[in-house]
Amino acid sequence: MMPLTIVQLPLPDLTNFSYLVYCEESRKGIAVDPSFVPQVVLQAATELEVELLYLVNTHGHRDHIEGNRAVMTATGVQLAAHPADLPDADRQLADGDLIKIGNGSIEVLHTPGHSPGSIVLKTEDAVLTGDTLFVTRCGRADLPGSEVTQMYESLQRLKRLPAAMRVFPGHDYGPQPVSTIGQELEQNDYLRCPDLKSFIRLRMG
Ligand SMILES: [Fe+2]
User: Fold this and answer.
1) Ligand 1 centroid to 147 CA: how many Å?
2) Which of 12, 76, 81, 98 is the most buried (most CB within 10 A)?
3) Cα–ligand 1 centroid distance for 95 (angstroms)
4) What is the DSSP letter of 95?
5) CA 195 from chain center: how many Å?
6) How far apart are the first and last CA of the chain?
């Protein structure tokens, strides 16, 4: 079985990434975080002839969800997200849920901290980390709905993933757009904090 294909979509004049994740064999897939420019992920789905099964949000912040309505209107696709951030989502995701995509599937990891309903989407060999983990950085934990201890625990969970697993973040904030868990264990100070106290000092200081 081939792993799901992930297309990282930089957006004009924004640091945000949208994503298209799809199964090459069945051409079924999902759109992730259309941000303010829903045309980008819609065009990618059209060009690659991918039928969208869901629109998924990594969390409920406006710079990730603003284009939801446009994607849903254009395609009729349903919204899947964690209800703590998006209570009106058609499919309410919880930790451990599987989103079937053709011959593959995505596992949902509930990773609160940046926001109460932040999730990470895990394929066989990659994670889409939203605003929880960036290349060399992590998401803010000082926003309304943020909780720094939860953020620390969510990052501890990501640290235990296989080192070869690729990391696709929600923003282009690092020296390169894509990384791996192994690279982040070496280069990300937020993951290298030895304990909660030092993490809080670094993140909130
Ligand atoms: Fe965010």
Assistant:
1) 13
2) 81
3) 19
4) T
5) 25
6) 46
Give the Å distance between the CA of 203 and the centre of ligand 1. 15
> Distance from the CA of 143 to the center of ligand 1, in angstroms?
9
C-alpha closest to that of 101 among 34, 168, 21: 21
8-18 confidence digits (pLDDT tens): 999 999 999 99
| Tokens (6 digits) for 103 | 């011959």
Domain housing 160? 5-204
How far, in Å, from the CA of 63 to the mean position of ligand 1?
7
- pLDDT tens for 104-143 read 999 999 999 999 999 999 999 999 999 999 999 999 999 9
Strands 166-169 and 126-130, how do they pair? Answer: parallel
Q: What is the CATH number of the domain that holds 58?
A: 3.60.15.10
pTM greater than the 0.90 cutoff: yes
- C-alpha of residue 61 to centroid of ligand 1, in Å: 5
What is the domain count for the chain?
A: 1
- Ligand 1 midpoint to CA 198 (Å): 23
Cβ-contact 17, 171 below 8 angstroms: yes
